[in-house]
Amino acid sequence: MKKGLSMRARHNLEGWSFVLLWAVGFLLFMAIPLARSLIYSFQDLKVSTEGLIPTNVGLKHFRHAFVLDVDFVPNLITTFMSIIVEVPLILIFAIFISMLLNRNFIGRSLFRGIFFLPVIITSGAVLQKLKDNGAETLPIFSQYNLFVKLVEFIPRDILFPMLGILDSLTVVMWDSGVQILIFLAGLQAISVSLYEAAKCDGATPWESFWKITFPMLIPMIFVNVLFSIMNSFTKADNLVMEQIKTVFKASNYGYASALGWIYFVLTFVLIGIVVFIFRRSLGERG
Amino acid sequence: MEGQTHAKKLAARRLESGSLNYVPVIKKKGTTLFFTVFHYVMLISLSFIFIYPMLYLISKSFMLSPDLADSTVQWIPKGFSLENYFFSFGALNYMKSFWNSIMTSLAPAFIQIFSCAIIGYGFARYRFTGKGLLLALVMFTFLVPPQTNVVPLYMFFSDLDWINTYFPFWVPAMFGHGLRGALFVLIFTQFFRGLPGQLEEAARIDGAGPYRTFWTIMLPLARPAMLVVFLFSLVWHWNDIFQPSLYVFMSDKFNLTQQLGVLNGQGEQELAIGTAASASSALVQIPTFANRVMAGALMTILPMLVLYLFTQRYFVESVERAGIAGE
Fold first, then answer.
1. Tens-digit pLDDT profile for residues B224-272
2. Residue B293 contacts residue B84 (beta carbons within 8 Å)
3. Assuming Cys at both sites, which of A49, A122, B57, B238 could form a disulfide with A127, CB separation 3.0 to 4.6 Å?
4. B325, A173: Cβ pair inside 8 Å?
5. Which residues of B touch A16 (CB under 8 A)?
6. What would the CATH number be for the domain defined by B93-326?
7. Partner residue facing B50 (CB), from A115, A233, A244
8. pLDDT over 90 at A153, yes or no
9. Which pLDDT tens digit goes with each residue over A101-144?
10. Residues 6+ apart with CB under 8 A from B322
11. Do A22 and B177 make contact, defined as CB atoms within 8 angstroms?
12. Which of B50, B156, B306 to mutate to test the interface with A (most CBs of A within 10 A)?
């Protein structure tokens, strides 16, 4: 049967035969659910013996989410603020640590193993338990009355979250295991001769970081930003996730779908901004 | 040594010719030492932060209740006891939950290796119509928050009577989806792209069809990528609390992380005292079962820790080699 086909058509068919599995899966587990949850978000679903009975309610759920629900908007703001604050911190830590690791020294693999350890330990339920016992923070900043001293200079609304962020730096660091490895791989791909050439021309290490290392790492920074955003979806302390789960377990399916869609749209706005920022620097490399 | 003497000779020659003086070389030696010390200080202090949760878990899990209240006990408990471990072993229903964890993590990890390898190979080696669009959809799938699809997926699985079974973990994995499946597809795509095309040409000339070429030539070569996908998939599935909490409600189907989630360290005895105390005053009840909970937490991740101990090198090096960062 295949003999009758041209080379081109055959190649095409073979290619599809490998990826068909994924395409079917995409329909079953992504495209159709996505469409269904969009439809649900405009409906009230009543649980009955014959299954679910939908009634169209228009924008009720969306109005409820933004106007009536006292938790949702604060949860949304907290979740997105923590992404916006934590992702740059994760990147800075990860670049710094990967540069520390990117030299030949005694104990390199030991340290590399340690920096990756949190990926194994502090995720999911274990992190939750550590948090319950207050073991996830180094309380240097909340102690010593720093708040009282600084509140005179910095407005309360900025200072309070700021100190909170400083206190939870440990959690941010624990989140950077995979990112460190990705940067390390990126650093090792940079040719040593570039640094040598820069040194011959009189560049200081500081200059060669900003003129060589940083530009060469931009693709990895992009990958890591996307990875960190994706990683934050199912983190144990994602309040939006918690709320959607609660609403869903209360069989309020329409509302849970609406919340899910709001979160989805806002996430893609954020990703769109990230892509826009990186578009130029990534575009230059083609 | 040789390099050093060579550098000295060079410097001496330069000194003679008057083109450069000797100073930079001496200065450089000093700064190198300074940087080495600084480097180690930074590494050690940072790695303390990373190893801190581990130390905390170990230290707390051996403490007895008096040690927890004792302010002179910081890290090292006064007595050594395995009591917390015995308690949590029972409270977690360990053997049963361990088996459930295997079914919800080891099994999908194995499935994902093969499904994602097949799909990744197709993306890496063929130019079929609609490839660009499909790859964009892979990226899209990678970035969609799982929360958005919760309701329809739950209904889909519940229509199939798959709630409280392992199928919601296995079947999406078979299609290259499931937990972070899109990421694994991208890893394989990237890896297969890096392999030389002559291998397949040779196999084709020898008369192997596309599937045989893939199965006997290309898949064995993809071992580094398979290893990285397997390890990450296993660890992420093991620690995931999102999927199990949606699809598994019966407590005898709970895996370790779910059991840990409800573990509060209270035995029956303490529970009775606790309710009596909270009835009179909420302040009397001070929960000091952190030791038992931490023992439970340590036991939950113990299989992953043992795995990490032996495969640490592969974990870390294969990320470098498999070219996750290649995009």
1. 889 889 988 999 999 888 888 888 888 888 888 888 888 876 765 555 5
2. no
3. A122
4. no
5. 122, 126, 128
6. 1.10.3720.10
7. A115
8. no
9. 888 888 888 888 888 888 888 777 788 788 777 666 665 555 55
10. B187, B190, B191, B224, B225, B228
11. yes
12. B50
Q: Which residue of A lies nearest to B209 if distances are taken between CA atoms?
A: A14
Taking only residues 94 to 123 of chain A, the set having a beta carbon closer than 8 angstroms to any beta carbon of chain B reads: 97, 100-101, 103, 105, 109, 111-123
**Paired strand residues for A55:** A44
Structure tokens at A182: 């990705």
Contact B137 A26 (CB under 8 A): yes
More confident of the two residues B1 and A262 = A262
| Residue pLDDT, tens place only, B163-174 | 899 999 999 999
Measured CA to CA, the distance from residue A176 to residue A127 in angstroms comes to 14
The DSSP line for A191-229 is: -HHHHHHHHHTT--HHHHIIIIIHHHHHHHHHHHHHHHH
Chain B hits for A168, CB-CB cut-off 8 Å, are none
- Using the CB atoms, write b or e for A233-252: b if 16+ within 10 Å: bbbbbbbbbebbbebbeeeb
CA distance A155 to chain B (A): 30
Tell me the CATH architecture of domain A71-237.
Orthogonal Bundle (1.10)
Decide if A122 contacts B305 (C-beta within 8 A).
no
Three-class SS state of B98 = helix
**Using CA atoms, how far apart are residues B15 and B8, in angstroms rounded to an integer?**
10
pLDDT of residue A26: 94
* A79 in reach of chain B (CB within 8 A): no
Report whether A54 contacts A44 (CB < 8 A). yes
- Chain B residues with CB under 8 Å of A126 CB are 53, 57, 239, 257, 260, 297, 300-301
Among B34, B148, B307, most A C-beta atoms within 10 A, so best to mutate, is B148
Q: Which SS3 state, helix, strand or coil, does residue B103 take?
A: helix
Tell me if A261 and B125 make a contact (CB, 8 A cut-off).
no
- Non-local (6+) Cβ contacts of A136 within 8 A are A122, A127, A130, A168, A170, A171, B53
Of residues A29, A129, A240, nearest to B172 (C-beta): A29
What is the full DSSP assignment across A27-66? Answer: IIIIIHHHHHHHHHTTEEEEEETTEEEEEE-TTHHHHIII
- CA dihedral over A246, A80, A39, A65, signed as positive or negative: positive
- At A27, which amino acid appears? L
Domain with CATH 1.10.3720.10 in chain A: 71-237
b (16+ CB within 10 A) / e for B229-268: bbbbbbbbbbbbbbbbbbbbeeeebbbbbbbbbebbbbee
Task: State the count of interchain CB pairs (< 8 A) between A and B.
Answer: 272
What is the rounded distance in angstroms from the CA atom of residue B149 to the CA atom of residue A35? 9
Chain B contact for A54 (CB, 8 A cutoff): no
Map out the domains of chain B as residue ranges. 2-61, 93-326
Cβ atoms A15, B122 nearer than 8 A: yes
Which candidate in A19, A100, A176, A247 is best for mutational testing of the B interface (most B CBs within 10 A)? A19
ipTM: 0.86
Specify the pLDDT at position B252: 83
